[in-house]
Amino acid sequence: MAPPRDLREWIALLEREGELIRVPVEVDPELEITEINDRVVKRGGPALLFENVKGSDLALLINQFGTERRMAMAFDAPSLDAVAEKLSNVLEMQPPQGLVEKVRGLQKLKSIADSRPRAVRSAACQELVLQGEDASLDLLPIQKCWPDDAAPFVTLPAVITHDPRTGVRNVGMYRMQKLGPRATAMHWQIHKDGRADYLATDGKIEVAVALGTDPVTTYSASAPLPKHIDEFMLSGFLRGEPVELVRAKTVAIDVPANAEIVLEGYIAKDELTDEGPFGDHTGYYTPPEKFPVFHLTAMTMRRDAVYPSIVVGKPPQEDAWLGKATERIFLPAIRMTVPEIVDYDLPVAGAFHNCCIVSIRKAFPGHAQKVMHAIWGLGMLSLTKAVVVVDEWVDVHDYEEVLFRVGANVDPQRDVLITEGPLDHLDHAPTRQFYGGKMGIDATHKGPQEGTREWPPEIEMTPEVKDLVDRRCAEYGIPVDAAAGNGRISQSPRPLRRLLRR
Ligand SMILES: Cc1cc2nc3c(=O)[nH]c(=O)nc-3n(C[C@H](O)[C@H](O)[C@H](O)COP(=O)(O)O)c2cc1C
Ligand SMILES: [Mn+2]
What we know:
The chain is an alpha+beta fold and about 500 residues long. About 30% of the residues lie in helices and about 25% in strands. It contains 15 helices and 23 strands. Strand 12 and strand 13 form a beta hairpin. Helix 4 runs parallel beside helix 10. The longest helix has 16 residues. It is globular, with a radius of gyration of 24 Å. The structure holds flavin mononucleotide (FMN) and manganese (II) ion. Flavin mononucleotide (FMN) binds next to strand 8, helix 6 and helix 9.
């Protein structure tokens, strides 16, 4: 088995696994699909294939990533941590000793070599080629997601550009507001690589947009890689097989051969439009702001193309699992630069950039503060508003335990660091856009080295007595949960909530 090679294999797999429902009746892409999907997502329900979307001949796929199981299935992995392990194996490669290790080392190197995209001459994504007036976004079942949205938005695109200075490719997921049959806005935010490519051009930049790729490639477009790393490489590595690319018809850009739909076009340097309002992943409407205009020069498709969509809004939504995939997959890379980090968690309810809980192997005074600053200096994690640091033995995914540590171990005057720095483009809370306050909470144990009193020992029952009670459970006639222990009160959260905390 390997990850699905294209969207159709993925849909077939989801269907075989009881993870997809086909909806044959007509539904409206304006609001109705959002409301149906919202109810399904919040219950951890299946992917939905709407086969009869009002105003379009194309089917619409939504909620393909809506549960942890499906997100892991997309990678053909038992869990997201298993995906991370694959990366960690390569990142932590040491010079091999002995034959067995050498062979293993070669396999690892092969997995890197296989990551590079492969060029092909003909491709399914170009079965139909529409140019000029024939190319029209009106053919697509583009959703208007929320009542006050300015227009329909393409929500799950892989936007491909090249840096005009270096030629290096970038793939990013940036929503596109429909402005007409052959124009959209391009919502690449201030911190994003596609925007940097665009700013580096002096006239116009060619752009291609892949819709409906295999799920790992779709995920990769959302991954926060450093600018000089091609997201298709990451996809190839995670798939264990190169992404196949074909030259687009009207722009000098290679596009995924397996895509359902490809939009080709360009963006002129100084042509801006009002983008938004849009019901965003912050749970609020993002107000209108100027963004560049994308002009469509051609549209290529597979026969009977399936249009992929996603809805963001008040968390949790489907994008929670794309975010959790990034959280898990990037842990080994984060540990490369900050090895004292044991684990971290970006709570879905905190919309990812609002809060980061991190556990560390604390070794010296001020270590928690060092890690806070490291987080504020790492890629897109630099936009994190609040960082909570706990000791290595604390489970960062157990929010009740984290709150217990914050309550028990924090002297707000001493342990809360208030500073400032760059913030998420869409954060409406700071007084100024893009820049504002940040908070670090040191919930680790402190000691005389840090100028405090002796830290008291934590309460722990002896292992002997625990074993004794485990053994005698049945005898007591009391329903004592052998798994619970140490006197902690743990309310059992709703199943979906519990999953999201993982
Ligand atoms: C569903 C979804 C929608 C997104 N929409 C946008 C968007 O409209 N604009 C944006 O700048 N980032 C958006 N992102 C986040 C980017 O895809 C992400 O930051 C990615 O790393 C960008 O690629 P880059 O690092 O190559 O710029 C979205 C992510 C997801 C999962
Ligand atoms: Mn990038």
